[in-house]
């Protein structure tokens, strides 16, 4: 039988606010345990939540970017369950009336087509703390620094049909929240996490199969592997005549498999009800307009502009707008040099260097300004593309400016026709045998003469001029 | 609506309350009495009445995103039954 | 000085007839002498005397306000910085928070001196003060009887004239019902008038702090200090605080339209003595010029069932934070996490608290939510709408605070439903969020009867003025229990 996977993602984006969603405690990552947990985050008796304005603003930003309805009225509810990382015994979340309603996000498929993925809703909620298992004999340590950090939970429709689509969707959303500057997107630190709901059904059928939920996937690779594993597992179970159990599973990245989560085996009854300590959140059109005005250019719009303004292919424009930082970087480079050449450099040597060294764009030793200056020297014929690669390597190593390296090392391209002619004359004179063969019809030797000339000029001769002059002399 | 001792056990588990058998019987009786009393609500015609979660017809006030809470870990943890290395201790959590 | 009101004590301090240190010393002595009442969980002699000395210094410098140096007591539900705040529960027997409640801050800023923390029903769940981990409070009028609850310790302390005033909280009548049963005055302000910050939550959409004292004038002085906006409570209303003492105009009853709900006067279960006292109180009001209007609050009898869904539902969630991890009671040697939770909570909470947590858990659980919680919220609106309609025709609504006078210790403790019905006239007010007060309005077999006046939202000034004028035409508020000293 042919099977089809049905996947929906719940993405949790930690909002990049200075303080918690309901308290004035800091949200900075990596602090000593519990130093950023105030009375409200600790669930001390008598203290009360007050909503962070910026968290609301950020939720609205995402809503607008997803072309979703921003709810004029939304309600905070309590999700009740006991867990040591949940100090109040309930999580403040949104249940029936979320702040962001139906929206959508378009993803690129392999075949170049675009698929629209439905977003069911996005709601504000507070994050839980962390249980630490190492270093405490027979006990777990509870760190509540993260408790109360604002989260936006973005729930997709079950529109995804493969792990690949799921990853494409997640990457697109990841880029979007960073474009919007509402989440730092740091997946290692857990700022952007994914729960995946996976089921399979026979191809051609409508009815969804029983789904499982894989919790807490914190890298694109894990999402890919976990979903693929889970699809295979479910198909195997069904083909063996078994049934899928609706359950929560964890991905074990060491073993590359998912397994049921032990602690949440029992059916939970969360007893949601409106939080009586908070009042309905009303968002008026003036607030929405204000947020709309502060929205940056969105990725899809920017991509289209790159195609039109810079004459880039749709694919290249897609690569360059995949993150706001890269797109910003490219535009600074392109402002100083030919846009297509700029694009080739940013996507080519520059990206390769980042990958090779594992350096992040924002800490790159070559700034966009500096790379632009280098590419400009190619455009204005100061150096050849080949020399530029050398200069680039030196820039990467030393952080020096391109012009300084070119001047210091005398790399400037030779475009003086007389000087080039003199070098060519020497090369021809030194290779009479090859000249004879060439003139006898072995014109492939042109390449040999070009190579010798470039070598003799220390690579600095303008290649185009070398070609012209050589052809004239050899043919003459 | 009447509640038996087994249901008391389920509710007590959801609420994480240790209740012994003898107590369960008494709770079952009391809870059944209270529910019987509350059940008169079922007879009320409340069709089309919007549920009222709050006495005030007010909306949520927003707080500026400014850090206002300093680190007071030592003061808070002085109240805790068991702490170590800045963490609250609980019997090992199994995930 | 034991029968004197805040207003009188304030004048005496101002004139130099006594010092705050003298006043506080006498108060501490009186509390000690009245130990049998079990009105206090914690007494703070050193702290109070130190504060009194400071108050006297302030006065000497001419910096005293009307409440400077006046001893008061706080219900043990209000967080007090580094002072045990137990909520009368074993769960919090060892809990001393590192912060003050808003009410505590406000009254401290006004110069009052906290002499101690009063006993109460555990987590404010009760109508008789019998559910306290620290044992029941006795009614000073008859020590075999309850003082009402949940603010029973505050009520007993004021009734016995141990302190001129105390704070309370009222979720379903917990200020007004004990005030009625002990012959004092108690005000539950409009929901949101006073910040709930630092007040340990029972049912967040119903809880409201308020003052308890011997006269309406003293309630006004206390409310003046307690009311105010606080950004730490999202449900606190940002509305200017009027001058409540200026509102106490003579002749306030004249022309006042007083609504008399027929459901409150012919209700089954209202004791004949209470009925008689109400009739006399109505006569007093009429003679003072009030215009009496019969009204109807048709959903009155649904208030108690609605309350016993909503309050336990909210409580079941509010009390989840008491889990033995970060503060409070923790069981011995838990074998695993579940054991830690279940035994810490099972041993830390008393029976009534556990009962209400279970009721609330049940009402919110899958399959029952619509039938109980949602239904109760709908009927809550119907009850609120009854009041809205009634207030189109009247300025205040009057009736008995409680259906009977103080009952005997143990009389209703085995029958929760009977106990719950003692709040039948007070609960609807919390559901609607309206202000209401109870003032003494008679004696039935030597036990006090309370008159309840209910007002429009934020109309505390008018309520206090009406109560004050009533007290100009009656002397029930001056009656005090005969106690051996």
UniProtKB/TrEMBL annotation, chain A:
GO terms for molecular function: ATP binding; glutaminyl-tRNA synthase (glutamine-hydrolyzing) activity; transferase activity. One of its GO terms (biological process) is translation. It holds the Pfam family GatB_Yqey. Heterotrimer of A, B and C subunits. Allows the formation of correctly charged Asn-tRNA(Asn) or Gln-tRNA(Gln) through the transamidation of misacylated Asp-tRNA(Asn) or Glu-tRNA(Gln) in organisms which lack either or both of asparaginyl-tRNA or glutaminyl-tRNA synthetases. The reaction takes place in the presence of glutamine and ATP through an activated phospho-Asp-tRNA(Asn) or phospho-Glu-tRNA(Gln). Residues 328-474 form the Asn/Gln amidotransferase domain. InterPro entries: Asn/Gln-tRNA_amidoTrfase_suB/E, Asn/Gln-tRNA_Trfase_suB/E_cat, Asn/Gln_amidotransferase, Asn/Gln_tRNA_amidoTrase-B-like, GatB, GatB_C_1, GatB_Yqey_C_2, Gln-tRNA_amidoTrfase_suB_CS. The lineage of its organism: Bacteria, Pseudomonadati, Pseudomonadota, Gammaproteobacteria, Chromatiales. Keywords: ATP-binding, Ligase, Nucleotide-binding, Protein biosynthesis, Transferase. It catalyses: L-aspartyl-tRNA(Asn) + L-glutamine + ATP + H2O = L-asparaginyl-tRNA(Asn) + L-glutamate + ADP + phosphate + 2 H(+); L-glutamyl-tRNA(Gln) + L-glutamine + ATP + H2O = L-glutaminyl-tRNA(Gln) + L-glutamate + ADP + phosphate + H(+). PANTHER family: GLUTAMYL-TRNA GLN AMIDOTRANSFERASE SUBUNIT B MITOCHONDRIAL AND PROKARYOTIC PET112-RELATED (PTHR11659), GLUTAMYL-TRNA(GLN) AMIDOTRANSFERASE SUBUNIT B, MITOCHONDRIAL (PTHR11659:SF0). It is an enzyme of class 6 (ligase). Its EC number is 6.3.5.-. NCBIfam families: gatB (TIGR00133), PRK05477.1-2 (NF004012), PRK05477.1-4 (NF004014), PRK05477.1-5 (NF004015). This is Aspartyl/glutamyl-tRNA(Asn/Gln) amidotransferase subunit B. Belongs to the GatB/GatE family. GatB subfamily.
TrEMBL record, chain B:
SUPFAM superfamilies: Glu-tRNAGln amidotransferase C subunit. It catalyses: L-glutamyl-tRNA(Gln) + L-glutamine + ATP + H2O = L-glutaminyl-tRNA(Gln) + L-glutamate + ADP + phosphate + H(+); L-aspartyl-tRNA(Asn) + L-glutamine + ATP + H2O = L-asparaginyl-tRNA(Asn) + L-glutamate + ADP + phosphate + 2 H(+). One of its GO terms (biological process) is regulation of translational fidelity. GO terms for molecular function: ATP binding; glutaminyl-tRNA synthase (glutamine-hydrolyzing) activity; transferase activity. Its EC number is 6.3.5.-. It is an enzyme of class 6 (ligase). It comes from the Bacteria. Keywords: ATP-binding, Ligase, Nucleotide-binding, Protein biosynthesis, Transferase. Allows the formation of correctly charged Asn-tRNA(Asn) or Gln-tRNA(Gln) through the transamidation of misacylated Asp-tRNA(Asn) or Glu-tRNA(Gln) in organisms which lack either or both of asparaginyl-tRNA or glutaminyl-tRNA synthetases. The reaction takes place in the presence of glutamine and ATP through an activated phospho-Asp-tRNA(Asn) or phospho-Glu-tRNA(Gln). Belongs to the GatC family. Heterotrimer of A, B and C subunits. This is Aspartyl/glutamyl-tRNA(Asn/Gln) amidotransferase subunit C. It comes from Spiribacter salilacus.
UniProtKB/TrEMBL annotation, chain C:
The keyword Transcription does not apply. Its EC number is 6.3.5.7. SUPFAM superfamilies: Amidase signature (AS) enzymes. It comes from the Bacteria. It catalyses: L-glutamyl-tRNA(Gln) + L-glutamine + ATP + H2O = L-glutaminyl-tRNA(Gln) + L-glutamate + ADP + phosphate + H(+). GO terms for molecular function: ATP binding; glutaminyl-tRNA synthase (glutamine-hydrolyzing) activity; transferase activity. Keywords: ATP-binding, Ligase, Nucleotide-binding, Protein biosynthesis, Transferase. GO terms for biological process: translation. Pfam families: Amidase (PF01425). GO terms for cellular component: glutamyl-tRNA(Gln) amidotransferase complex. Signal peptide: none annotated. Residues 22-464 form the Amidase domain. The active site is at 75 (charge relay system), 150 (charge relay system), 174 (acyl-ester intermediate). The keyword Nuclease does not apply. Allows the formation of correctly charged Gln-tRNA(Gln) through the transamidation of misacylated Glu-tRNA(Gln) in organisms which lack glutaminyl-tRNA synthetase. The reaction takes place in the presence of glutamine and ATP through an activated gamma-phospho-Glu-tRNA(Gln). Heterotrimer of A, B and C subunits. Belongs to the amidase family. GatA subfamily. This is Glutamyl-tRNA(Gln) amidotransferase subunit A. It comes from Spiribacter salilacus.
